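User: Epoxyqueuosine reductase, Aromatoleum diolicum:
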Amino acid sequence: MKGWARELGFAALAVSGVDLSGAEPGLEAWLASGFHGEMDYMARHGMKRARPAELVPGTLRVVSVRMNYWPQAADARTALGDTGRAYISRYALGRDYHKLMRSRLQKLAERIAAEAPHGFRVFVDSAPVLEVELASRAGLGWRGKHTLLLNRTAGSYYFLGEIFTDLPLPVDAPEEAHCGTCRACLDACPTGAIVAPYRVDARRCISYLTIELKGAIPEELRPLIGNRIYGCDDCQLVCPWNRFAQLGAEADFAPRHGLDAARLTELFAWSESEFLERMAGSAIYRIGFACWSRNLAVALGNAPGTQEVIAALQGRAEDPSELVREHVAWALARHRARAA
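Assistant: Predicted structure for Epoxyqueuosine reductase:
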């Protein structure tokens, strides 16, 4: 199986059992704290996430895979340091990974079926699945203090996917954690969203604020977002294990439309039709033009108050979207306060 997985572009494959009962108390406590914010689906599915055999009856094993995505030209630190430049989480610079990985996983499951017929379903961030928990139990890595999966030879810049199968496959041994006393990810989080090791309050997380949140971004958090307009990589950028991160080999994950070097004013000037055309096939497409513009308005409010920036904001002060107008007004007020 592992050889077949490599042929399909996966960097690694491992197998786990389905008993995740040990993860249920942590999931219950996270939900009870309200850390999921407006992600109602997290609470709606409840403990089904920790019970693979309830999600897919008959499941005996879960095959977990990872696929590297880090683009060759992704100079993340330079992009973050240039406050007039838009920062997009490196995983979203290219095409949406969901379809590509799901297609590859389907092919892998079918290839397994050709040798050993089985009932299966494939998932790529598309169902209530505790993918990090399953991958760590399978030995693909361990859960870091930022809650992402870490691997000693690959860091954390990769996507995860799963095959739920009724085959009684031999399981792989889990890997011990290797974070030790390091707290680099906690200290680097711009908004303090990692409230404790292995515990993230999504309501403060920039990825949640710029992707999952559909309404107004809390004003007290806006200045902390900086120039991050879609997602955040800070906790990964400082992780020592990402010294060993591997570049992605998939052409689909390469940056598109100059998103790895785009200026905030350039993107804010897009019309809705330009957004829909250029973001087709991108993970960014799903947040919609209004939220995209909202995020850019916040970043422009945090950018240097150049004539270009002020003009860009003023040009959309009467935007049709109330959401956008409110964030533009905040950004302009922020620049007026600085100037005063």
